[in-house]
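Read as amino acids, tokens; as here:

___
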Amino acid sequence: MDDYENVPIEEYGLAMLRGMGWCPGKPIGARCTQVVELKDVVLRPKGLGLGAESKARKAPAFIAKEEGQLVLGKGAYVCIEQGTHKDLYGQVEGLDDENARVLVRLALSGKIVTVNELFVRLVTPKEYKKKGKLLNNDKYEAYKRKHEQEEEEIKLMPPPSPPPHDRKRHRSEKAPKQRQASSGKKKREFENVRT
């Protein structure tokens, strides 16, 4: 009885197969001619139905060494990527492991909402402080990109050409001879008026 308990279950199964004539690297069965690769079973996320497919999750952004690894747990900072609270930031208040749900306190309103684990993305405290209180982050980013493009276009434009020459010149722009001649006429006119 002690020998039975000391043998791991994997070894017990392999011993049974060897007893039935199986050798490692050979096919199983009388009619099989080739070795069939085993298919690994992938555990489905909790709360995801049989017909549903989980979207490929993005790899988390680069994490600085001093900030450490991001772990989904109480106190972690998250961004909600899907659902009614999309693009809102919050802090994890608790986890519901049975239903694969996360309790999140939203940064803007302070309300606690429950969100599926698949809908949240872990963020660094730096990103949370920077973007957590933005009400309309998408509009802000679009506005920022638009103005950056306009500034680049202005930099690439040639400088404006000077305005066309105006025939009426300002008094200070007149040539010195013209100024003297015109002042002499005024003196003569003034003298004629006095006499």
